[in-house]
Each structure stands twice: as C-alpha cells, then as structure tokens.
Amino acid sequence: MEARICDSLQNTSRYTSLYRLRQKPAPFRNQRGGIAVITAIMIIGLVGICGLALDLGLIYNRKVELRNVANAAALGAAKKLNGTPSGINAAVAAAASAVAALKYQYDTTAFSWSDSAIKFSTSPDPQGAWVDAGTAAATPGRFYYVRVRTDQLPDAGNVRTLLMGVVSPDFVTVTVASEATAGRATIDAAPLAVCAMSNTPNSSRANPPGPPELVQYGFRRGVSYDLNNLAPTGVAPVLRANFLVNPLAQPGTPGSAADVQPASVGPYVCTGTLGIPRITGDTIAVVPAFPLASLYKQLNSRFDQYADGLCNFHAAPPDVNVKSYFSSAIPWMTIPPSPTSQQTALCNGGAADVTCTAPGRTKLQTIADLPAPGGPAAQYGPVWAYAKAVPFTTYSPGVPEPLPNGYTTFTTASWSNLYGGQTSAGYPGGSSTPYKALTGVNFSAPSAAHRPGAKGRRVLNVPLLDCAPMPSNSATVLAIGKFFMTVPATANTLAAEFAGAVPVDSIGGKVELFP
Q1: Rounded to an integer, what distance in angstroms lies between the CA atom of residue 493 and that of residue 490?
Q2: What are the percentages of helix, strand and coil residues in the chain, rounded to 5?
Q3: In 382-434, which residue ranges form alpha helices assigned H by DSSP?
Q4: How many Cβ atoms sit within 10 Å of the Cβ of residue 352?
Q5: Exposed site from 89, 263, 284, 451, fewest CB < 10 Å?
Q6: How buried is residue 475: exposed, middle or buried, by Cβ count under 10 Å (0-12/13-18/19+)?
Q7: Crossing angle of helices 85-100/31-78, nearest 10°?
Q8: ∠ at Cα 496 (319, 213), nearest 5°?
Q9: Using CA atoms, how far apart are residues 163 and 45, in angstroms rounded to an integer?
C-alpha cells in the first residue's frame, strides 16, 4: 500500500515537471519602466551635449569675428603711418573706419569704436612699449607698428550662452577677445634718390602768354630729365645729385656697409622696392652717388631685358608696354629733338653743353628749368610720353591730387608756350598718353614668355631729397617723385620723365600682420 502511494506521488511529480517545462517563462514586469528611465537620461545628456556644442560654436564664431575686425583695423591703420602727426591721426581714422564696416553676432550687430583700442610702437614685439595716439603723434618719426585690441571695443567680446549658465552662473556670459599687430615690411620706392631741384612743394611757372604751369620740387611734369646728371645747389664744385638708398637700414639708423654693395642692392633695383617700412619721418641712410654703371641692367628689366640673369621676371616683370621712345623716332612731336640722340631736355648751356660739363658750371639745370622761353623746341627732348603738364590753377594747397585721373591738364595747343615753340602732330586724344597705347607705333608688348607684364613698371618712385646742404651719409626725404623711364638706361644715363610728386601714404608696399 505504501509502495503504491509513493509511486503515485512520483508520477504526479513527473507530470507536474513536464507541465512546467511546456509553459513560457513569465515576463519581467518592470522592464518597460527601466527603458524609459534610461531613455530620459540619454535625452538629458544629448540635450546637454547639443547645448554645449551650440555655446562653444557661439564662442568660436565670436572669436573669429573679433580676429577679423582686429586684422582689418590693424592693416588699415598701418598703411597710413608716414612719420607725421597727421599719419597717426589717419591711422586711427582708418582703424575706426575698418571697424565700422564690419559687424558681429552673425553680422547683425555693429561694432562701436574706441580710440583706446589702438596703440603704436617702434617695434612689433608684443612685450614692447605701446603708446596711445596722442603720445605717438608727439614724436611720430619712428612709430611703424599698430596694435588693435578688441577687448577695448564696447560689448563686442561678451557672448551670452544658451545652456552653460545652467552649470554655473559664471558661464552665463563668456568674454572673448582678439588682437592684431601690423606694420609695413616694404615700400615701393626705388633705392635711387635724387636731390629736389627746389624745396618748394608746388610753385607757379610763367609761360606767357598762356596760363602758369604747376612745378613740383623744381620739376616740370611731362619733361624728361637725366637722373644721373642733376645738381641743384649752385655751389662749386658741382656735386652730382643722385644717391644710393640703403634698402635695409631703418630710418634714423646708419645701416650696414654690406647692404649698399651692388650685389646686395641689385634685387631691390629689379623690383623697385626698399625693405624698410617707410622713408619719411626720419632721415634715411644714403651713399653718394648711385652706381648706375653697376645697376643699369637691373633697371632695364622693365623693358623685358634680363641680361646676365640679374633679375627674375616673376618677381620683377616687364612693363605691359616696353616701347622705347627714342628721340629720333617720336611720332607725336612736330619738331624733333636735336641732336637726334637727345633723350632729355638739354642743360642750360645749350646744344654745345649736352653733358652739362661746361667750365665753371655749378648748377646742373636743363633749359626747361630756365625762365620762358627756356630754349628752342628742339632742345626739350621727348615730352608727354607718360604725363602731361598741369596748369597751376588746378592745384589747391593742402588738397591731395585727385585720384585716379589726377589734375586737369594742359592740351597740346599749349605746347608752343610751354616748350619754346614746339607743336604736336598725332598726339593721342582725350586723357590718353603714348604709353597707354595698346596697339600701334607707340606700343610694344613684352616677349610671349614674360606676358602680360605689369602696368606702370617703368615708373620709378624716386625719393626727392633735401640737399641743402648736400647729404653725405643720411638725408631727409621731402617727397617721392614719379619718374617714367622713356628708354632703357645706360651705364651713364637714366632718362626719365617727371610725372608728379605723390603722397607717401599712397605709395604701395607690403603691409603684414606680425605674431
């Protein structure tokens, strides 16, 4: 009986186990709630990450905006420094103008300018002495560098965050700033300087019966001079009035003798530049006289002449028009110059004194510089190849020459009064000059390998020096004169037509940002 009961219980247990094996496991009753919690945590994290990314994006974007405005203001200001108080003031105005032209906060908010944002120094060193505009204007000669700091521009650096303020009240507003230092590294002036024939910036020359003519520093526009054969002093013995400018000596310093060797100066003659920030506001280092015999081939790169590989046409390209306007073949002048080799106005001794070496001569002037009529028409050489003469009435004291076309000029109908009876035949009409021709007898393109060339490369920006007394190792620059090379230079002549005095701050050059 007991055995049956045990067997029965065992069978029941076996059936129960089999039944249970056939059943599905019961689900976790709290599984859905756990997923909801995890999802909520993940969403909060993602929102935080997105918010942080947005805030960091706002901060980064503002930093970029401030860097751009600092760079623009510093570069604009540095271009205006010319060694004078007005240059300091112009730099401040240029910086303010650059700032006013830009916006921040995704181009929605205008910057507000403050003069405290700009400082000046003699060195680009961030740890150097930086002074405000008022201090710099008191002694402006050697201030070459500008620094602009955006932390002085009201509110521009304050970035209101979206979510970072939740983490800490200190992050509700994040302040960022930028600064930039700029200065001129080179100036587009040739390492050749000549004495000004007069220290008077602008004077009136009588050419009766016509209107008076504008004369600048003793030079007449549209007249060619031999820059290797001038002397304005009128004191014996005659001192040739050209100089080699040390291309690497900072203004006010003597520089190194090695820097004025022809091999060192040659590349600067090729490009027509100086490796210094400017040439006004302080004296510049010079050496008398310019070694034309050693450097004339570098000058002639402008005519697509690259003899001996002294210039590289990539760095020193030819002009777009390399036509040489030789006196023996000038189609726009009725009375040809005489003798036929004459490229410049003759010396004031006349045709017998072509080389300006007559005994007793102490002042090397041309017949163009003498009172009217100043010699016959055949003694003037080519005129108006690049520039035209200007009536004195168009000049306004203290007003810069209007750009881009300059002053109103004489017409060829005035040549008879201006140049001893000279008349014109076939001179280009309108505002054009022979150099501006694109085709025809007055035009010649550079070689195909060197095209297209660079417009205006034949124009030399030549420092005009104060030569009373005659400089020896240093000189003061009164202005920069534009001289157009009518023909290639030779070992002893450099024929160039005067095209006016130009403001120093309008002269080009490389303006750079410094670390």
Answers
A1: 5
A2: 30, 20, 50
A3: 415-418
A4: 8
A5: 263
A6: buried
A7: 150
A8: 120
A9: 12
Please give the model's pTM, rounded to 2 decimal places: 0.83
Question: What pLDDT shows up at residue 9?
Answer: 42
Residues 6+ apart with CB under 8 A from 509: 184, 185, 186, 187, 188, 273
What Å distances lie between residue 6 and 3, 15, 17, 19, 150, CA to CA? 5, 14, 17, 20, 98
Residue 2, class by beta-carbon neighbours within 10 Å (0-12 exposed, 13-18 middle, 19+ buried)? Answer: exposed
In contact, 373 and 412? CB cutoff 8 Å: no
Burial readout 384-421 (b: 16 or more C-beta within 10 A, e: otherwise): bbbbbbbbbeebeeeeebeeeebbebbebebbbbbbbb
**How far from chain centre, in Å, is Cα 136?**
22
Distance of CA 151 to the CA centre of its chain: 28
Rounded CA separation 510/187 (Å): 7
Report the SS3 class of residue 412. Answer: helix
> Distance (Å, rounded) from C-alpha 113 to C-alpha 156?
10
C-alpha to C-alpha distance for 171 and 508, rounded to whole angstroms:
46
Torsion over CA: 500, 502, 508, 509 (sign) = positive
**Cβ count near 109 (within 10 Å):** 12
User: Can you give the C-alpha Rg of the chain in angstroms?
Assistant: 38
Long-range contacts of 409-412 (CB under 8 A, 24+ apart): 410/213, 412/384
How many of the other CB atoms lie within 10 Å of CB of 4? 8
Residue 349 · residue 361 · CB < 8 Å: yes
